[in-house]
Design goal:
Blueprint (H helix, E strand, L loop, with lengths): L12 H14 L5 H7 L4 H8 L5 H8 L4 H8 L1
């Protein structure tokens, strides 16, 4: 393997997920399972994100009553 293989890159999990989703969008014939293995992610995670599941962080932010900006202004 070359020194620029995806496993050797120090990308966050979300960055790797975005790369996989972009690759799958550009070429639907690629195997999501193989890409998940190459980028060291769970195939089920790729499947769920590809089918519209949100990040838990984004989901929980929508449930908060105050936005991040309003909350920081109250703290000050």
């Amino acid at each position: 393997m070359s020194s620029t293989t995806p496993k050797s890159l120090s990308l966050s999990k979300e960055d790797r997920m975005q790369i996989i989703l972009q690759l799958l969008e550009a070429n639907p014939n690629l195997s999501s399972r193989k890409l998940a293995k190459i980028y060291n992610l769970l195939p089920s995670s790729v499947y769920y994100r590809r089918n519209g599941r949100q990040l838990s962080k984004e989901y929980h932010q929508k449930l908060q009553k105050l936005s991040v900006i309003k909350e920081s202004s109250l703290i000050k």
